[in-house]
Amino acid sequence: MLLISKTMKINDIFIYSLMLVSLASCQKDIPYDFDAAENKVVMNAQMHTGEDTHAVYLSISTSQSIQKIKSGSVTCYINGNMAAEAQLDTSKDDDDFIRNEALNDYNAVGSAPSMARQTRFVFKANFKPGDKVRLECTANDGDYSAYSEVIVPRPPVFHAVDTSRYYNADENSDFKQSWIYRIRIKGNDIAGERNYFRLTSEYDRTLHVEHIDGEDEPGNDEFYEEGALRIDRGKDPILSDGANETDMDISGASKNYYNAFSDYLFRDGTYDFTYQVRESAFLLGSGYDTASKKVDLTATVYPILWGITEAEYNFLKALSLYLYNGDDITFTGPISIPTNVEGGLGVVSIATPSRDTIVFNRTLYKNPNS
C-alpha cells in the first residue's frame, strides 16, 4: 500500500506511479532450492591473550539446521609452527569458559549455535600480540575441513582519568532513578593501522563485617565477591561508534550492545570517552548497611579495553544489529553475519585486553533508626 501525504505534489504522485509501474514490469520470480545448499562445517572460537587454555566449537550447518559432528579434530599453528592439537572436551560444564571467552561472556546473547549442537575442543597455547594464529579443523572423518587465520591484536593504551558521582533521573537512560559513577577513559590510538576495540568492566570487593551489638554473635566476618558490571554508554559518540542509535547501517548501527567501536573518530590520535556504572552494583554492602553491623568495604572497578580483530568487530556489530531489530525485520531485511572461516562458516577471533583499576572505600553502619 502506498501512503500519500496531503501535501504531496501532483508531480510527486506521477513520479511514484511511474516507479510502481516500472517495478511491476520488472518483477520476476527466482526459484531457490533450499536442499541444494551445501553443508559446511562451522568453527567458532573466541579466545584472548592472558589465558593458556582455549576452546573451539565445531558443528555442521545444513540447509535445515545446525547438527552435531560425528568426529572431528582441531590443530593450532602459531607463526607457521604447530603449537597444539586440541582434545575433545567431554565435560558438560561450561563455567570455566563462559567468562573467559570474549563473546560468550556475561553480556553476550545469541553469539553461537546452541551448545547442545556443538562439540567443544580445548587446547593450551600462549598467544602474543603480533602472532599469526591459524586454526585448522576437520569433521566427520575428513568429509569437512576448514581453517582460519588471525593476527593477534596489540593491547590498547589507556588509563582511567577520573570518576564522578551523580544521581540520574533521566527516564530515557538505562540507569534511571539511581546513583551513578561516570568513569572517564583517555588513551592513545596505535598509529599507522586500523584498530578495533571493545569495552567491558568488572569489579571485586572485600567486606569486613564487625558485629556491634547483641543481635549477632560477637566477632568479625570477611566476604569476597566479584563479577561483571553492566555498562551504560550514555550518548558518548565513541561508544556509539559515531552513529545515531536509530541508524540501521551495519557500519555504525544499532544500540551497540557489545560496546564495540573502531578508531575512525580518532585515528592515529587520542581518544577520550566516558561510561557509566550503577553504584549499587558494586559499592553497597549487600544489605549489611541496614543490619546491626559495621562494614568496611573496599571495591575495585576494572575498566577493560580489548584490542579486537576486524572480524570480531564486524561480528559484534552484526549481532548488535540483530538484537536491536529483534524479530521485527520486515522492513530491514535479513542481517548478514560475517565469517572469517575459509571452507566453512563461523568466527575465529583473539582479543588482547588492557585494564586499569579504580579503588573505592566505604564504611557502612547500622542505621540507628532502623
List the helices and strands and how they pair.
Layout: H1 10-26, E1 40-48, E2 53-61, E3 66-67, E4 72-78, E5 81-85, E6 87-88, H2 95-98, E7 119-124, E8 132-139, E9 144-151, E10 157-168, E11 178-188, E12 196-211, E13 220-228, E14 260-262, E15 270-278, E16 293-308, H3 310-325, E17 348-355, E18 358-365
Describe the model:
- The chain is mainly beta and 370 residues long.
- It has two domains: 37-151, Sandwich (Immunoglobulin-like), CATH 2.60.40; 157-307 and 351-365, no CATH class.
- The chain is built from three helices and 18 strands.
- It has helices spanning 10-26, 95-98, 310-325; strands at 40-48, 53-61, 66-67, 72-78, 81-85, 87-88, 119-124, 132-139, 144-151, 157-168, 178-188, 196-211, 220-228, 260-262, 270-278, 293-308, 348-355, 358-365.
- The strands form three sheets. Strands 1, 2, 3, 6, 7, 12, 13, 14, 16, 17 and 18 form an eleven-stranded mixed beta sheet that branches.
- A hairpin with a 4-residue loop joins strand 2 (53-61) and strand 3.
- The longest helix has 17 residues, at 10-26.
- The radius of gyration is 25 Å and the shape is globular.
- The chain starts with 9 loop residues before the first helix and ends in a 5-residue tail after the last strand.
- 31% of the residues are buried.
- Mean pLDDT is 79; it is low at 1-25, 95-113 and 248-253.
